[in-house]
Design goal:
The protein has 116 residues and is of the alpha+beta class. Helix content is 17%, strand content 28%. The chain contains one helix and seven strands, in the order αβββββββ. The chain has a seven-stranded antiparallel sheet, with no helix packed on it. It starts with a helix and ends with a strand.
């Protein structure tokens, strides 16, 4: 292999490693089960909806988010790409100790329960 080809392979490998690290690969756990008795969607505390039932304005996951049925507050902890993991009050939505609820950041829809 020529020195130029060797350099190109090393550069490509370094670039792939940098992308993997910056995208959060391996930092979030898989969904372990569906949430129980969760709302159809959580909504931002401050109205950030373009229109009722529409997507949430802005970039990234917002916090806090509210259950529009009863005002239960969930608090953002981490995100990756288009989902975020939120801490919930004890015993809500079937979330147990050491678990979080995952929602879609742009819609507020529940994805499921994940390990903390």
């Amino acid at each position: 292999m020529s020195p130029l080809n060797d350099w190109m392979w090393r550069a490509a490998g370094s670039l792939l490693l940098a992308v993997a690290c910056s995208s959060g690969v391996g930092t979030m756990t898989a969904v372990i089960r569906p949430a129980e008795a969760a709302p159809a969607r959580f909504e931002p505390e401050l109205s950030e909806l373009r229109v009722p039932g529409d997507t949430i304005a802005g970039r990234g996951c917002l916090s806090p988010m509210l259950d529009p049925r009863d005002g239960t507050v969930i608090t953002f902890l981490r995100s990756r790409i288009d989902v975020g993991d939120y801490d919930v009050p004890s015993g809500r939505y079937g979330v147990g100790p050491g678990e979080l609820i995952r929602i879609e950041c742009n819609t507020g829809r529940v994805v499921g329960i994940v390990r903390r």
